[in-house]
Structure formats: C-alpha cells, structure tokens
Amino acid sequence: MTAGSVRALIGVDTGGTFTDTVVTLSDGRLGVGKALSTPGRVEQGVLDSITRAAAALDLTLPDLLRRTAILTHGTTVGLNALLTGTGARVGLLTTAGFESTLPIAKANKTHGLDELDLGMPTRWRKPDPLVARADIAGVAERIDVTGTVVRPLDEDQARAAIRRLAARGVGAVAVSLLWSPVNAEHERRLVALVGEEMPGVHVSSSAAIAPVVGEYERTSTAVLDAYLAPAVGTYLSALRERLREQGFGGVLMILRTGGGAEPVEHTLRAPVNTLRSGPVAGLAATAGLARTLGRPNVIATDVGGTSFDVGLIIDGRTQRATRPMVHRHALAIPVVEVESIGTGGGSLAWLDHGLGTLRVGPRSAGADPGPACYGRGGTRPTLTDASAALGYIDRLGNAVELDVAAARAAIREHIADPLGISVVAAAEGIVRIAADQMRDLIRRTTVQRGHDPSAFALVAFGGAGPQYASWYADELGVLDVVVPDLAAELSAYGAVSSDLNIGAERGVVPTPLDRAGPLIEATLAELAGELDASLSAEVDDVVAASGRGRITHRTVALRFYRQQRSIELAVEAAAGPAELARLDATFRERYEDLVGPGSADARSVVEVVSVRVDLTVAVPVPPPVLRKPGEAEPTGARPAWFGGVEHRCAVHDWRRLPADARIEGPAFIESEQTTVVVPPLRQARMDPSGHLHLGHLG
Amino acid sequence: MVDEITFEVLRHRLDAINDDAASILARLSGSQLAAEARDLNTVIMAPDGRVVCCGRYVLAQVVSMHLVVRDILAQYTDNPGIGPGDQFVTNDPYVGTLHQPDVVVVAPIIVEGRMVGWCGSTVHQPDVGGPNPGGITYDARSIFDEAVPMPPVRIVEAGRMRRDIEREYLARSRTAELNRLDLLGQVAANRSVVEQVERLCAQYGAETVGAVMDRLLERTELLLRERLRALPDGRWRHVSHVEYRPHGSAPGEPEAVYAVRLTMTKRGDDLELDFTGSDPQAPGAINAAYPALANFAIGSVLIYLCGGLPWVPGGVWPVVRILSREGTVVHAKWPAGVAMSTAATCQAIRVSVNSCVARMLETSEEFAPLVMASCQAAGGGGGTVHGLRADGTAYATMTLDEITGGGGATWLGDGADSSGYTTSPGASCANVEVNEAYLPLLYERRVELADTAGPGRHRGGAGTLHALSPYGTGTPMTMMSFGQGLQHPLAAGVCGGEFGGQSVVAVTPRTGTDDLAVAQGLPASEGWSLPMPSSTIQIGAGDVLISVSQGGGGLGDPLEREPSAVLDDVVNGLVSVAGARRDYGVVITNASEDSPVSADEAATERLRAERRRLRIGRSPAPRATGGRAGRRLSAALDLLPASSASAGTAVSGRNQRERDGVVACARCATVLCGAHENVHEHLVADDVSPAGRSPLGAVYAGGERFVVRHFYCPACAAQIDVQVCRVGDPVLAAIEVL
Start and end of every Hydantoinase B/oxoprolinase domain (chain B) (predicted)? Predict the structure, then answer.
C-alpha cells in the first residue's frame, strides 16, 4: 500500500486541560497528539492537537486531513457554557398557567448538591436558573393526555408573547407545551411563529428534542438546548470551516450524550446532545475494548482531576441513565449512565476536627493553583500530592517535573503533624481513603444494581486511573484489571471508534403492554418515517466510508406500573399478541435478573413508557499492530513507599514493553502521559495489543 | 482504638451502604409516593437502636427509629425471638412510626451470634386500610375509626418471608399491589444492608465496626454540646396553632383550636424542649403520639441546629430532653386517633422548634449563618383524592401538589421558592403530566403565586397555586384535606421577618377559562369568603379545586429590604406592585406589561419613613452610629451589662449578672427594659388581621380569632418580632434571660 492510498480516521476529544487526538490509519498505524485546550478559541486547540498527531505519523495537517474520511469529535464547549453561566439569554414559551414549571423544578432543593452543602440546610437551593422568570411567557393553548386540543392555540396572543420576548433581548427560544409528545401540533406551530417573528434565532422544541412524558424534565432539556445552541453552533461551524480550509473533505461527526456519534449537521439541530459526551467517549472505547478482550461485561473507571467516573458495559453495551441531571438540570434525552463522585487527583485532603477523621474531597484544588506539587502556589495537600510524596509519580504529562518537597510540606503541615504521624503514613492514608471512596462507588454501580462484579472485567483509564487502579479494583473480585493502551487518551480513541448513531424516541402515555400493540406499531412507523426524513446526506457518506450498511433497531421501554426504572427491550417482530407476550416474559425475566427471584409478581402490570428507533452505521477501526513477545527490561529505578517501607522500584517504558512481559511489583510503568503503579505483591502483564493486565502475584 | 484513616473508610462505607438501601427502595417501589415524593428513608442503627446513619429524604420518619427497635428488644427477645435474617414490620404510631400510612421494616444485623446493629426503612403507603381510602379519617372518634395499626410483627424469619403474615398485612390495603412492591423493596433494602455490614465485619472485625458506630455517636454528641456551650444560656417560647373539627361539632361552630406550646431552655450544653403547656388532645386525627413528637422535635433540631455537624440522630438524642404530658395534642393517649398528625400537630411542633432554635442562634454572630425561617408548614393541596375513572376503576392517592411551598429565609439569602418542606429535603412534587396520565383530572394552573413569600429583609420562598378539575370521568372527585394554616399563617419568620402566606383550599364552579385569573386578581381588601374544608370535599365535573401552598417565612424587617431586590421580585412576578408597596414600602413606577419598571427611590424613602411613623405613632429615632454593644439577645436586641453601681451587689455567677443587665434596641441603642423583664412587653405591639395578606384574599370563618402581632422598637420603629396569636392573648415571653 502506498502512502497516498492510506486512509485515516481521526478522533479528537477536548477536555478541560488538554485536547487529545488519536489517528488510525488503514495500515494499522496509530498517531497520538496532545495540545493545550484553548478556551475562547477552542478550534485552535483542536487543530494544534491534530497537527501533532499528524506529525507523529510524519504527515502535515493538510496531508492527514485530505486522506480522512471521518473525523469524530467530543466537545465540552456546551458543558463549559453551562458551568460558567455563559450561555444564551433564553426565552421560554410554555402553556399559559404553567409558567413556573421550570422555576419549581419539581421542588428540588438538594439533588445534585455536594456532600458539604447537603449537610448545611441553609445552603439548600434550587438549581441555578437558566431562564429568568420574566423571560418565560405563557401561551394560550392546552392539549390533554389523549392529544385532544382542549383550548386552541391563540396565535395572536402567541405572536404578542414572542414579540415581548424579542423586545426583552432573548438570544434563543425554547418551546415546551404540556402533552407535546402526544400531540406536537401547537409546539410545531409556535416554532414556525418564532421563525417568523424572530428570524435567525435558534428555537429548541421540546417535542422535537425530548418527546417524553414529564413536562419538567422535557422543558429543562429544551431550555438547556437553547441555552447552549449559540455557543455550540458558533464553535462547530467555525471548526468545520477551519477543517475545510485545511483540506478536510470527509464527514465531521460529533459525539452524543446518549452514545455514538452523528454528523455535525444533526448536532446543530439539537446541541444539547453534546453536553456529557466526554465520559461517553471513554465508555465507547471501553465497549470496543470489551469486544477485543472477549469480556462482554466491563466496569469502566476514569480518575480525572476532580472526579471519579464509573460506567458499565453489559453484554457489550453501555447503559442508559434513569434520571440524568447535568449541573443539577434534568435531562430527558438518552444519557449514557456514568456515576461520579468528587474524588480525583485534585481532591483536597483535610482534617475534619469535629469528627476526628481524615477526609478526601469533595472540594478540589482545581486547575489553578492545583495540587501543591504543581508548584503553582498551591499549599493544601491533594490526592496527587500524596502520590507525589510517596514517589508514585515524579512528573506531570509532557515531562513537567513535580515539586515533591512542596507536596510533602503540604501533607506534613495540614495532615501528618496534626495527627502525629509520618508524612508517609499520612500520604498512604490519603490514597487509601480516596481508593475506598472509589471502590464504594464501583460497588454502588454494580452490586447495588444487581450486578455481580465477579462477572466483570475492570478497565482503568484517564490520566490518573492507572495510578490508583490496583487499590480501588482490589476486593471487588473482578475477572481482570486492564489498563488499556492509550489510557490517558482513551476518550479520543473512543471518538475515533464510535459508531454513527441517530435515534428518534417518543414517550407515550403509560399504557399496559397487553393493550399497547397498535400504539407501539403506529409509533414505530411514525418514528421510522421521521428518522428517514431527518437524515442528512452525510449519513450516506459515512456508510460509504465505513463500508458497512445501516442497521435499524426498534426498542420499547417497559416498566412495572408507575415504577421509576424502565428496561429497554428490542422489538423483534410485529407487535401482535405473540410479540407482546414475548416482551412481557422477557421483561419479567430481565427484571428478576436485576432485582431478585420472585420480585416480578405475576399480578403486576407491565406498561410501555416510550418507543424508540435507532439507526446505526458501524465505523470499523483497523486492528492495532501487535507487539512481539519478549522479556521486560527496566529503563530505570526510583524509590517509593508502600506500607510504610521504602522500596527501590523498577521503572518501565510502556511503549517498549514486549507482549507477555511480566513485571513484578513494586514497579512503575510509564507512558508519556500516565504512570501505572504496580504495588508490592502485585504484577502487571503486557498483552500483544498493548494493554496491561494487573493482578496479584502468584 | 480505630485510627483516623480506618474510621474515615468505615464511616464512608456505612453511609454508602445506607444510601444504597434508599436507592434500592426507590427503584423497587411502585408507588408514586416513593418514586416521586421520595416519601421514604433508610437508617443504620447501633445495637440498641440509636440511629447512626440516616438518609436525607424525609427526616422525621427515621430519626427516632430506635423507639421501634427498643420495643422489639423489650417485647420479643424471648418470644418470638430475634435472630439472623429476621425482619419486623410495623405501622404503629404508638410504638414508633409517625402515623399509620408510614410502614417501618427493621432488621437486626447479627454477625456470628453478636448483635452489631440494626437497619430499617420507612415508606409512606398509599393506603393501609381503615374506613377511608388513603388511611385517614378526618373526624375519627378514636383510632378505631382509623386504620388500626399493626404492632411490630416478624414478617421475615431467617431470611424467608412469612406468607401468612404478608397476606394479613396486605389484606387490609386498598392498594395491595403497590404495598407489596414497597414491602419487597424494604425487605430487599434491609437485606442489602445486612449483607454488606456482614462483609464489613468479616473484613475489619465486628468490634471495629461497633467502635466506629460508637465513635460517630460520641463525636456527634460532643460536637453538639460544644456548639451549645458556645451559645448564651436562655429560654425561648413559641406557640403554634392547629384547627380541627372533632366529630359531632355543631354546624356553624368554628373549628376548635389546639395550641402547641414550646418552652425551650438551653443551659450549658443541655437543651430542653418543654411541650407540657400544649392543649389537651383532640378525639382524633390531628394528634401526635409520642414517637411523632420525638421524631419531629429531633428532626427539627437536626435541620435547624446541626448544620455542618455529622447527621447522626442517635448522637443528638442524649443532648435534647423532651418534656410532654400524656393526653395532650403533642403526646396522645391511646386510643386517640393520630393518622393526620404529620400534616397537623407535627408541623406545629416543627415550627415551634424551628422558631425557638432560630431565636437561640440569633444570639451569636458566629452561628447566624445557621438561622433559617420556617418553610411552608402546610399546603392547601395536602390531602388524599379518590374517585372513579371513566372505566369504573377506583383511584386513591395524593397529588403531591402540596410539596411546592416556599423555604425559609436565611442570612445568606432569600428562602428557596417553591421548594417544599425543609424536613423532607429529597421530596419532589409530581409532574402535571404524570398526574394527568394516572388520574382523571386536568390542571388549569400551577404557578408560583405573588406575595405569598414571607416579607423580610430577606424574604421567604414563594408559595404556589394549583388549580385542577375532574376530567374524562363522569363522577366527582372526593378530597380529604389536611390543609392547615387556612385561618392564619403558620410559617414563622425570624429576626423580625413576617410569616409566609397562608394556605388556601377552595372549590369554585368553573365558569370559563379566565375565571381563575379573576379570582387571582381579587384585591385582598375585598376578601373572598370561603368555607373551611369539611371532612370530605366533592369536586364535580364543573368545579375547580384551587389550592395554595404556603410561602416561607421572612427574615428581618421588610422595610430594610433593598428596593432593587423588591424590584427584581416584581419583574419576576413573585411580588405584585401592590405587594411591594404594602409589604415592603417600595414604590414601583412605570408598571405596565410592556415597559420596564423601576423603583422610585425618593417615593420609597418617603413611604418607608411614613410607615415607621405609623408603627409607633410618632417620629422615629434615627439609627445609632457605631457598632453593637453588649451581647446579642436577638438579631435586633442587645443585652448590656448592669451599670457598675448596681453590679456591685451581684454575687453569684454570670447568669445572675445577665438578668441584672438591660436590653437595648440594636438599631437605635435605646434602652428598653431590664434584662429580667419580658422585653416584648416594652415594645410597641400592633395586632393586625391575617386577612390583610391572605393569598387570593381568601378569608375563612374562624380566622377572626387570630391576629398577627408585630413588635416595634418604641424609639426607632424597627420591626423586632412577629408572632401569630389569638385575639387577646397576653404577650408571650418569647425571649427570657436566665
């Protein structure tokens, strides 16, 4: 194969600090690039990062882009706008008499608060409002539960309301009416009226974005969408332009909160789908890894600077969150389930004098000044400082040296001396407490949901996951602990390996399954029609580039009467009596698997709550170049403390480790961006694909 | 000895195990109360039942679950015995639950023959039997007219559910299928806790786990005592009222009034809650049995006093002494009915503790950030609704509309609008669409209601209006209302802030879609005379059920609120232009829908000066320059030491000397009285009718018996305190120096 005919796929993930790129070439080579994220001009960081990945493959940026069929990107532009409160001024049109739906927020004053605020009732508060009450306008109309119009839409009144919002200076509009998932007629008409009265302004329709029953969550989603739309739209359009200027003629795909990626043309219609794509990319990569490893069930764990994230892959698939929230705002779109706690490398260690205990988190040192060992003026000890003080890490990514003395001083002053213990004992305590919090979260996402960890492999990634995996994966009884190749850039790898996925979902009035056949059939048909009509030309380009066909999935979400959790099941045949009976039986079986034998009472009614059609196009990634077997050769050694004892530890270079190499702890395995800590009595084994497997010795 | 690191690991683990139990329960439950309102909670307890970990859902359901455990330990140790894998179910309010709909399931945690602790949970059930759907009989003559409670019964034996007892338990309910799901959820949640604590014991040793529980209890007690020691000694009082029509009341006779009277005394590091002055019990429904009193009193101490401390109710118990007399409305004597306690007397208990604790915390600048006014104490939407759907099937449930009242104001800011009860932190109201999907009704309105928030320098959270009609069914809907606070406000303000707005519940004929707007626009002065809800209200097809959830209490003198903050509220529809003038003395100009509004500073200045003059009938003294003197007696009062001349005779102790001192207004430094006197008697008291601020101008017969009593500094006219009392009540000694 000549260089000219080598085709490329690119994945780019923008995080808070770095923008990572992974390039896969059709000849099996991989290129990795990392650049500082550039807030304000995010697309520059993306281009820098791709340029570096290209350089790693001895290509120029235009060289690489010209041979790229698909570039898949995970962005935090939307999330940042939300976190920094810099989204659009949103106007909301809603059913008259129900203007307070969003401010009432179902009376939530505690959900989503951190542990410290939860313990202080005077700090309980509503989610930060995204729309001022004065920018919410009631529209005279009403539709009932059956979709019947109770009160026709008063168009004159609606136009007046829209003009008032325009006069108030809103920059985006959300529309969310009662029962619009059942009958979207009024909502569609309002969208058209906004288009006439406020041309060029982004309009987010709840019935289009999140047509599910439950007006608070649906309204919240539409408002989030409108809030983010200008920022995300401006950014993605700018990025698309810059890429084209540099020779890119392929399809730009954007990662979705619900998993998979979609052509940017689709994203621009509902940018809310980008909100939580970061953790999703890591999970997508883990799902791919699960296939490679032959492990259908995987616990994906990611230690970042401020949080620890856990997601599950079950039977090769990511799971959908039950009542997702982002920054305390409810989301009614599919969201891949990722549980988080505020324990990460930057988590502060502190003494709770009242309780007489050493605590880690939930407050964090943040990026600035960051941990004491970053040498940027931080003086409070963090989890990263504990690792530095113990000798587990001695540099930050890109070979920045850590100030170990500052880490030790911070731990001595704030923890060790007040407790009357050594710095090493204090630092090991901090690591242990943090690791236990992480393990508690893993238990909660597995055992407490009816999953037995001994049927799972655990994958550790993120900048710091490989540092702590040996501890937090302990005692869980998992099948295997894997630190994947590209652990620190796994989100970018997840982007490049994400399939195209476009879905259409519709909530229905909860209906007993045995009577729901016609409803399911009719809704599936409508959704399939809507989906077809919505597809952009780019979808065909992806089909062509991937060499794979479209696959359509039809699913229904079922639950027992009024229960909180629903289970999605595939509809495999026409929804006649036989298929309904099969769905009913499958649901009960699945329910008992999760909840326990005997829990699915025969008398309990199963009801349908939503119907969904997904279109998927697989984007196959070329297989990696396999490593040849051999023996491990350390590249150096450095001292570190385990169990209060100083050890001389071998240091290995991850890139140069041959397949089947076994490394006995205590030892460190370093790549450019991360360090795998192998404690005493543990070992690490390299597999041919470049993944490390951690385990106990013997 | 457990080191700090192991202690932290196990503490975190126990909390995680307990939180998981709540998640399991919420997930398995089929009832809306559990799924939406999170009307449930879980705990882990020490071997004697003291609660070590509790979830932050409905606090009052679990903080004294030790009463259930102690009953079991006292009565069942030999027969039927308490063994590994056993679980006990009860809904007996005279043993340990709040009222019959709250079902408790507890399980011992026994590891290798050693009792390590207990776990348990409470879930509010849609129906537990009795004459009326929903489990509550308004005019019960005794508990025999209510759902007859089930004492603790061993429903799971050595891990196996007793089918006969399960049947017996479910047979009484109209909603057996939902109750069954909840029961399974509670049993599964306990099972999960037991298994995980067993594993913890295997790893760390049962002794270590026990030591961690002990240390959590000890440290919490120590910390609370430390906090109390840092506060001045004192005595504070609050009176809160409940209205109720006992069975057989004569037509036209107004509701009987039951007063809950609290005298709270803090000496050193002890806190005494003395409810003995409360009124004798009613025949039925509204009374609290002792467990409900204990749960609400301790739950309130946790919320209002223990911010920032570990939430370990078992550690709070030894610090707080509850005094009560059996046979009173707060401590009912069997067989008095108690099914409606939580919505009635318990809220009066909660508000009383809330108010007295706030008065205590006001004495300290350090603890001022913990001061919080009362959240909603009731809502007109509170109650059960039942009837028939078009297909003839029955429904009986709560709409949960009530859980949208305002939160209390704090020094950190305004109360949280439409945020529900502070004592049920995790509870949510239901989506309109969810209620319409399952119940034959149509909402016409659900909006935050202007002028319901208790005015103050920081205002309370706004309350909410709901309007709905039966829909798609030919039969009327029946409501059994719990609505309290209809005749007078209940949600107390603090530091001179006003009470939050009253509840409203009304049924009016529907004459057109804009009907309600008219009702809402009724000027308060015109009044809207309404009948008190009787034991059951019928809402026919042509009727609208209107309900208002109370606003939260305010903090500080409303005339001190920043006019710009009032303007923001007007722009956002939370305060009306008339309300701005009436409640805050702020003049809003240019108020029309299409043009921006502004606060007229000069006119506001003049109006506020005029208000102050009206308060005391003469020109007010100016604000004093310089800082505060002496120690704080309240947010608005200072306690100055006795002059050197009289201090010479003081002989014994600090308290003696404090009573020899004088009380001065903190704003103008005018000395008001001696510290041994009731300072409220030396303030200008002004009684006004609650009708003046009632939402929608609603006026209920019987309301004329109550007044809102404002207390002003006689020199500078600062609003120092606001109380609700009956006409002619003597001035309460709300603050007493010891």
Answer: 3-558
